[in-house]
Amino acid sequence: MKLMTTLLAASAMLALAAGAAQAKQLVFCSEASPAHFDPGPTTGGNDFDASSRTIYNRLVEFEKGGTAIEPGLAESWSTSEDGKEITFKLRPGVKFHTTSYFTPTRDLNADDVIFSFERQWKEDNAWFAYLDGLTWDYFQGMDMPRYIKEIVKVDDLTVKFVLNEPNAPMIANLAMDFASIVSKEYADQLAASGDLAAFSTQPVGTGPFVFADYQLDTVIRYQAFPDYWAGKQPIDDLIFAITTDPSVRAQRLLAGECDIMAYPAPADIAQLQGNENLVVQEQEGLNIGYMSYNTTEPPFDNVNVRKALSMAVDKAAIIEAVYQGAGQDAKNLIPPTMWSYNNNIPADTYDPEAAKKLLEEAGVTGLTTDLWAMPVSRPYNPNAQRVAELIQADWAAIGVTANIVSYEWTEYRERGKQPDRKGPFQIGWTGDNGDPDNFFATLFSCSAIGVSNYSSWCNQEFEDLIQKAKTTADQAERTALYEKAQEVFKAEEPALTLAHSKVFMPMNKRVINYKMDPLGIHRFDGVDVTE
């Protein structure tokens, strides 16, 4: 019944989408609804797919299909000899979208760049808290306020970032989704009307596609921006068909109701690969699936309790049952394809008897806890509910009772970062910029507590290492520091590192020029379809 209901809803959506008779159309079966369409405060890959990579641009961009930096809204940039000033020359003539709710009167300029960051940075900015409960998770979690001293308008097309100290990952950070450039003129118009919240539901950017319509939990429609600075896209109409169940996404792809699907279930991959009408791209993921312990909550504030619970989990069984050949054991936070990976760290040992002994020595008996399971499939964890069930059984074998809990995806993440969250929390990460800092600092720095540090873990030795690694451009020196940080992480066990997964992207053969992104983002700029 669930499949039939979903397919009927999909058919109705596609019938509505058929209005543009001769237009080129691509339908993407996405995995979840976006929280909204402002990429600054959001953190989910599905949020970025729906906003930053369709509607917006950044000063600099990652090359398509890679992590090299190339010009974006800035056509060039230069760094001072001491590494504390980065000057960007903006591309002239960049247009903002014209929509039913906004008509721009000028091109992109330095004011837009400064506004885009100051709204995330300065608490006295009217836009700092324009939505209830708003947090700027990336900007704050990556410690950007610590590093940026000021952003200076040199002239209309020149912006200078002045830093408090050199920061090796800064250029790559500015290519990330939170750094998308928004329209100050549009923000001023909404502020004058008193409707600031519309900024997140009626977006305006400079990107390849213009937002057209959103039907909650069902469909998002975009149209190619005719005045896009890099040229109009081959696709006229881009449609996100929101389909949370991976098996239903696969059925819809096989039925020709969508052209590309996100994150197939491992059990469906062989069938998709065997279909003559489909192509299934694949690559090793720059990702990590893990389970955070709340290190401020007894008894998880005891490192030996954390180690005992990790030791009781049969990771090999999880990888076999859930990842089905598309995952590998994660002994470190960063994947083995990333520079500075410490291969000397020993792999986790599955030893229930030793786990029981550690719990006894810690004085922990009859432990009952919540165990959090994501409600959606992610590239780093295709079935968190099944993972939770396997962990639940493993813990029962050592006398620990786990009650599995879950919520809608956006609510799940919000509840997970609360300081009083009860129980271990399944989550994961796909790298944003190819730099180890994006894993270590974003996920486990002290400043990321309450943001993206779901373990609420602040370890001064770890902190000193990762902060020092940002201040030098010498990759060998940074590598040594990150290798040591991995030793500290393993010794303290703030999280159980579960798996790194291979990522698959099935699509119809009529799709041309789609490239998988190692950063886990779905990009449709440059993509075409055959008639």
Q: TL;DR of this structure?
A:
The chain has helices at residues 2-17, 45-50, 110-121, 137-141, 144-147, 170-173, 184-193, 198-201, 246-254, 266-273, 303-311, 315-323, 352-361, 384-396, 409-416, 437-444, 460-470, 475-492, and strands at residues 25-30, 60-62, 69-71, 74-79, 85-90, 148-155, 158-163, 209-215, 219-224, 237-242, 260-261, 278-284, 287-292, 327-329, 368-372, 401-405, 425-430, 495-508, 511-512, 528-529.
Molecular structure report:
The chain is α+β, with helices and mostly antiparallel strands and 531 residues long. The strands form six sheets. The protein has a five-stranded mixed sheet, with helices on one face. Strands 12, 13, 14, 17 and 18 form a five-stranded antiparallel sheet that branches. The N terminus is likely disordered. The chain is built from 18 helices and 20 strands. Its main location: periplasm. It comes from Devosia yakushimensis. It holds the Pfam family SBP_bac_5. It is found in: Periplasm. This is ABC transporter substrate-binding protein.
